Description:
Rossmann fold; seven-stranded parallel beta sheet; 43% helix; 15% strand
Amino acid sequence: MSRTVLITGASSGIGKACAEKFASSGDQLIICGRRKERLEELSKNIEKESGISVLPLCFDVRKKQEVDKALGKLPYHWRKIDVLVNNAGLALGLSGIDGGDPGEWDQMIDTNIKGLLYVSRAVIPLMKEYGRGHIINIGSIAGVETYPEGNVYCATKHAVASLSKAMRIDLLHHGIKVSQVCPGATETEFSLVRFHGDREKAAEVYRGFRPLSGVDVAEAVYFVANLPDHVNVNDMLLMPTAQASAKLIHREEP
Protein backbone atom coordinates (compact mmCIF):
# COMPACT_ATOMS: atom_id res chain seq x y z
CA MET A 1 0.00 0.00 0.00
CA SER A 2 1.40 3.38 -1.00
CA ARG A 3 2.41 5.73 1.81
CA THR A 4 2.91 9.47 1.95
CA VAL A 5 6.47 10.39 2.94
CA LEU A 6 7.49 13.96 3.79
CA ILE A 7 11.22 14.74 3.54
CA THR A 8 12.87 18.03 4.51
CA GLY A 9 16.14 19.15 2.96
CA ALA A 10 15.23 17.08 -0.09
CA SER A 11 16.99 19.16 -2.75
CA SER A 12 20.38 17.45 -2.31
CA GLY A 13 22.44 14.86 -0.45
CA ILE A 14 20.76 12.52 2.01
CA GLY A 15 17.33 14.09 1.52
CA LYS A 16 17.43 13.70 -2.25
CA ALA A 17 18.64 10.10 -1.94
CA CYS A 18 15.82 9.35 0.51
CA ALA A 19 13.27 10.80 -1.90
CA GLU A 20 14.55 8.63 -4.73
CA LYS A 21 14.64 5.53 -2.54
CA PHE A 22 11.09 5.87 -1.22
CA ALA A 23 9.83 6.74 -4.70
CA SER A 24 11.32 3.52 -6.06
CA SER A 25 8.93 1.54 -3.83
CA GLY A 26 5.89 3.52 -4.97
CA ASP A 27 5.49 5.89 -2.02
CA GLN A 28 4.13 9.33 -2.86
CA LEU A 29 6.33 12.19 -1.69
CA ILE A 30 6.16 15.64 -0.20
CA ILE A 31 9.64 17.06 -0.77
CA CYS A 32 10.66 20.25 1.01
CA GLY A 33 13.60 22.60 0.68
CA ARG A 34 14.72 26.17 0.02
CA ARG A 35 15.95 25.70 -3.56
CA LYS A 36 12.83 25.78 -5.71
CA GLU A 37 14.54 24.91 -8.99
CA ARG A 38 16.17 21.81 -7.54
CA LEU A 39 12.91 20.66 -5.94
CA GLU A 40 11.00 21.07 -9.17
CA GLU A 41 13.68 19.22 -11.15
CA LEU A 42 13.74 16.36 -8.64
CA SER A 43 9.95 16.23 -8.65
CA LYS A 44 9.78 15.96 -12.44
CA ASN A 45 12.50 13.31 -12.58
CA ILE A 46 10.86 11.15 -9.92
CA GLU A 47 7.42 11.42 -11.45
CA LYS A 48 8.84 10.47 -14.86
CA GLU A 49 10.94 7.55 -13.62
CA SER A 50 8.68 6.13 -10.89
CA GLY A 51 5.24 7.28 -11.95
CA ILE A 52 4.33 8.38 -8.44
CA SER A 53 2.89 11.69 -7.23
CA VAL A 54 5.26 14.31 -5.83
CA LEU A 55 4.31 17.53 -4.05
CA PRO A 56 7.27 19.97 -3.93
CA LEU A 57 7.05 22.62 -1.19
CA CYS A 58 9.57 25.44 -1.13
CA PHE A 59 10.07 26.96 2.32
CA ASP A 60 12.74 27.58 4.96
CA VAL A 61 12.39 25.33 8.02
CA ARG A 62 13.92 28.10 10.15
CA LYS A 63 10.87 30.30 9.59
CA LYS A 64 7.85 29.06 11.51
CA GLN A 65 5.38 31.13 9.49
CA GLU A 66 6.62 29.57 6.25
CA VAL A 67 6.43 26.07 7.75
CA ASP A 68 2.91 26.61 9.04
CA LYS A 69 1.74 28.14 5.77
CA ALA A 70 3.15 25.31 3.64
CA LEU A 71 2.11 22.40 5.87
CA GLY A 72 -1.06 23.88 7.31
CA LYS A 73 -2.89 23.97 3.98
CA LEU A 74 -2.09 20.57 2.51
CA PRO A 75 -4.72 19.21 0.10
CA TYR A 76 -6.86 16.51 1.72
CA HIS A 77 -5.22 13.56 -0.05
CA TRP A 78 -1.78 14.72 1.14
CA ARG A 79 -2.70 15.11 4.80
CA LYS A 80 -2.22 11.47 5.82
CA ILE A 81 1.54 11.62 6.30
CA ASP A 82 2.87 8.17 7.13
CA VAL A 83 6.58 8.98 7.41
CA LEU A 84 8.34 12.24 8.25
CA VAL A 85 12.07 12.38 7.56
CA ASN A 86 13.52 15.39 9.40
CA ASN A 87 16.66 15.71 7.31
CA ALA A 88 17.23 19.46 6.91
CA GLY A 89 20.42 20.49 8.70
CA LEU A 90 23.89 21.89 8.26
CA ALA A 91 27.25 22.63 9.85
CA LEU A 92 29.05 25.94 9.44
CA GLY A 93 32.73 26.43 10.21
CA LEU A 94 35.22 24.78 12.54
CA SER A 95 36.58 26.90 15.37
CA GLY A 96 37.17 27.07 19.09
CA ILE A 97 34.16 28.04 21.17
CA ASP A 98 35.53 31.58 21.66
CA GLY A 99 36.21 32.04 17.94
CA GLY A 100 32.89 31.02 16.45
CA ASP A 101 30.65 33.27 14.39
CA PRO A 102 27.42 33.99 16.32
CA GLY A 103 25.57 34.36 13.02
CA GLU A 104 26.61 30.83 12.06
CA TRP A 105 25.62 29.60 15.53
CA ASP A 106 22.15 31.05 15.01
CA GLN A 107 21.82 29.44 11.58
CA MET A 108 22.80 25.99 12.88
CA ILE A 109 20.52 26.24 15.91
CA ASP A 110 17.62 27.61 13.87
CA THR A 111 17.94 24.91 11.19
CA ASN A 112 19.01 21.82 13.10
CA ILE A 113 16.87 22.28 16.22
CA LYS A 114 14.12 24.82 15.69
CA GLY A 115 13.47 23.74 12.09
CA LEU A 116 13.03 20.14 13.21
CA LEU A 117 10.64 21.30 15.92
CA TYR A 118 8.58 23.52 13.64
CA VAL A 119 8.10 20.82 11.02
CA SER A 120 7.38 18.12 13.61
CA ARG A 121 4.84 20.32 15.37
CA ALA A 122 3.01 20.85 12.07
CA VAL A 123 3.00 17.16 11.11
CA ILE A 124 2.37 15.40 14.44
CA PRO A 125 -1.30 16.47 14.73
CA LEU A 126 -1.93 14.93 11.30
CA MET A 127 -0.35 11.66 12.44
CA LYS A 128 -2.34 11.71 15.70
CA GLU A 129 -5.52 12.21 13.69
CA TYR A 130 -4.91 8.86 11.97
CA GLY A 131 -3.44 7.13 15.02
CA ARG A 132 -0.17 6.14 13.39
CA GLY A 133 3.00 7.49 11.78
CA HIS A 134 6.77 7.35 11.87
CA ILE A 135 9.16 10.24 12.49
CA ILE A 136 12.77 9.61 11.46
CA ASN A 137 15.22 12.28 12.60
CA ILE A 138 18.60 12.48 10.87
CA GLY A 139 21.14 12.93 13.63
CA SER A 140 24.91 12.55 13.41
CA ILE A 141 27.97 10.99 15.00
CA ALA A 142 28.32 14.59 16.27
CA GLY A 143 25.28 13.94 18.44
CA VAL A 144 26.91 10.87 19.95
CA GLU A 145 30.34 12.34 20.72
CA THR A 146 31.66 15.89 20.69
CA TYR A 147 34.78 16.58 18.65
CA PRO A 148 37.31 19.46 18.68
CA GLU A 149 36.05 22.72 17.15
CA GLY A 150 32.64 21.18 16.48
CA ASN A 151 31.09 22.75 19.60
CA VAL A 152 27.80 24.32 18.44
CA TYR A 153 27.14 21.88 15.61
CA CYS A 154 27.72 18.98 18.02
CA ALA A 155 25.40 20.66 20.53
CA THR A 156 22.62 20.89 17.95
CA LYS A 157 22.94 17.23 17.07
CA HIS A 158 22.99 16.25 20.75
CA ALA A 159 19.73 18.20 20.94
CA VAL A 160 18.32 16.15 18.06
CA ALA A 161 19.19 12.99 20.00
CA SER A 162 17.46 14.28 23.12
CA LEU A 163 14.42 15.51 21.19
CA SER A 164 14.12 12.12 19.49
CA LYS A 165 13.91 10.46 22.91
CA ALA A 166 11.42 13.07 24.12
CA MET A 167 9.23 12.58 21.04
CA ARG A 168 9.32 8.83 21.53
CA ILE A 169 8.10 9.23 25.10
CA ASP A 170 5.45 11.85 24.40
CA LEU A 171 4.03 10.10 21.33
CA LEU A 172 4.13 6.56 22.71
CA HIS A 173 0.38 6.37 23.30
CA HIS A 174 -0.51 7.76 19.88
CA GLY A 175 0.88 4.91 17.78
CA ILE A 176 3.67 7.07 16.39
CA LYS A 177 7.16 5.62 16.05
CA VAL A 178 10.24 7.83 16.48
CA SER A 179 13.68 6.83 15.21
CA GLN A 180 17.02 8.53 14.87
CA VAL A 181 19.58 7.65 12.19
CA CYS A 182 23.06 9.03 12.92
CA PRO A 183 25.55 8.92 10.02
CA GLY A 184 29.29 9.27 10.34
CA ALA A 185 31.37 10.83 7.56
CA THR A 186 29.07 11.19 4.56
CA GLU A 187 30.22 12.76 1.30
CA THR A 188 27.47 15.12 0.21
CA GLU A 189 27.43 18.94 0.14
CA PHE A 190 27.92 18.85 3.92
CA SER A 191 31.62 19.78 4.05
CA LEU A 192 31.31 22.16 1.11
CA VAL A 193 28.69 24.09 3.10
CA ARG A 194 30.72 23.87 6.31
CA PHE A 195 33.75 25.39 4.59
CA HIS A 196 31.75 28.03 2.72
CA GLY A 197 32.31 26.59 -0.75
CA ASP A 198 36.04 25.80 -0.36
CA ARG A 199 36.28 22.63 -2.45
CA GLU A 200 39.86 21.83 -1.44
CA LYS A 201 39.02 21.84 2.27
CA ALA A 202 35.86 19.83 1.64
CA ALA A 203 37.74 17.22 -0.40
CA GLU A 204 40.37 16.87 2.34
CA VAL A 205 37.72 15.65 4.78
CA TYR A 206 37.21 12.51 2.67
CA ARG A 207 40.83 11.96 1.59
CA GLY A 208 42.19 8.41 1.74
CA PHE A 209 39.06 6.46 2.71
CA ARG A 210 35.62 5.62 1.41
CA PRO A 211 32.96 7.66 3.23
CA LEU A 212 29.27 6.97 3.30
CA SER A 213 27.17 8.34 0.46
CA GLY A 214 23.71 9.85 0.58
CA VAL A 215 22.45 6.61 -0.95
CA ASP A 216 23.98 4.57 1.89
CA VAL A 217 22.15 6.64 4.48
CA ALA A 218 18.92 6.52 2.48
CA GLU A 219 19.10 2.71 2.48
CA ALA A 220 19.33 2.78 6.28
CA VAL A 221 16.42 5.22 6.59
CA TYR A 222 14.32 3.08 4.26
CA PHE A 223 15.13 -0.05 6.29
CA VAL A 224 14.07 1.68 9.51
CA ALA A 225 10.83 2.86 7.90
CA ASN A 226 9.89 -0.59 6.62
CA LEU A 227 10.05 -2.75 9.73
CA PRO A 228 6.84 -4.35 11.04
CA ASP A 229 4.50 -2.14 13.06
CA HIS A 230 5.57 -3.70 16.36
CA VAL A 231 9.29 -3.14 15.71
CA ASN A 232 11.12 0.20 16.04
CA VAL A 233 14.76 1.17 15.68
CA ASN A 234 15.23 3.81 18.36
CA ASP A 235 18.73 4.84 17.31
CA MET A 236 21.02 3.73 14.50
CA LEU A 237 24.69 4.78 14.29
CA LEU A 238 25.86 4.29 10.70
CA MET A 239 29.59 4.58 10.01
CA PRO A 240 32.03 4.01 7.14
CA THR A 241 34.10 0.90 7.77
CA ALA A 242 37.19 3.11 7.92
CA GLN A 243 35.77 5.30 10.70
CA ALA A 244 35.83 4.17 14.35
CA SER A 245 34.81 7.43 16.00
CA ALA A 246 34.11 11.05 15.14
CA LYS A 247 37.78 11.85 14.55
CA LEU A 248 39.44 8.43 14.21
CA ILE A 249 39.54 7.49 10.53
CA HIS A 250 41.92 5.06 8.84
CA ARG A 251 43.21 6.76 5.70
CA GLU A 252 45.18 5.02 2.98
CA GLU A 253 48.23 6.91 1.75
CA PRO A 254 48.22 7.75 -1.98
